[in-house]
Known about the structure:
With 246 residues, the chain is an alpha/beta fold. The chain is 52% helix and 7% strand. The chain has helices at residues 5-22, 36-49, 65-78, 88-96, 105-131, 143-148, 169-178, 183-186, 199-203, 207-214, 221-233, and strands at 27-31, 54-58, 81-84, 135-138.
Amino acid sequence: xxxxxxxxxxxxxxxxxxxxxxxxxxxxxxxxxxxxxxxxxxxxxxxxxxxxxxxxxxxxxxxxxxxxxxxxxxxxxxxxxxxxxxxxxxxxxxxxxxxxxxxxxxxxxxxxxxxxxxxxxxxxxxxxxxxxxxxxxxxxxxxxxxxxxxxxxxxxxxxxxxxxxxxxxxxxxxxxxxxxxxxxxxxxxxxxxxxxxxxxxxxxxxxxxxxxxxxxxxxxxxxxxxxxxxxxxxxxxxxxxxxxxx
Length: 246
């Protein structure tokens, strides 16, 4: 069946409205990275809740300055409030506590999204108290990223609600096109903003290959092996492992 972005967009917006009404929720806090996923999520919540109930946060931390600029483009385009909370000093202070312990690039990279997620939850809690009604944190991970475990456990893998988790990259783009997400944001090469590589360079496969794999289409053997290895090796990120009682 051909993907229908109008129908899917309306379905997501309807879901958000019903979920918020059922659980007596007020607003949402979203980390705005300057990429397509957070742009699409912010557009969906703005449509569902109204721009006055959507709060975006950009959190630079030894990162590309353009990400902050792109986040501002998104917030101005959809009209929601954007806060800039620079986590550079927080990151540096945290690392200072471990100055006598050998550190690695990967642990540094994963610390950033964990600090960012703590910031989002702190802000959601703050707004809940100020507004007198619950604000929750929205995730922005798509189906392709989640399947191969391309997220940080305790970081960007956490959220209270994720409306893109069942949509592949190409489907997210189609929804973004329908929602009129600025083209320079929607079509730019996806990157985590934490290293100097694009997502696909880090993964070793393209998002199209991951999508083809998920859809049961043929891909080359090397890419298939990479996808399966990443999926299997990252299963520990799926949630808390529980032991059955005897």
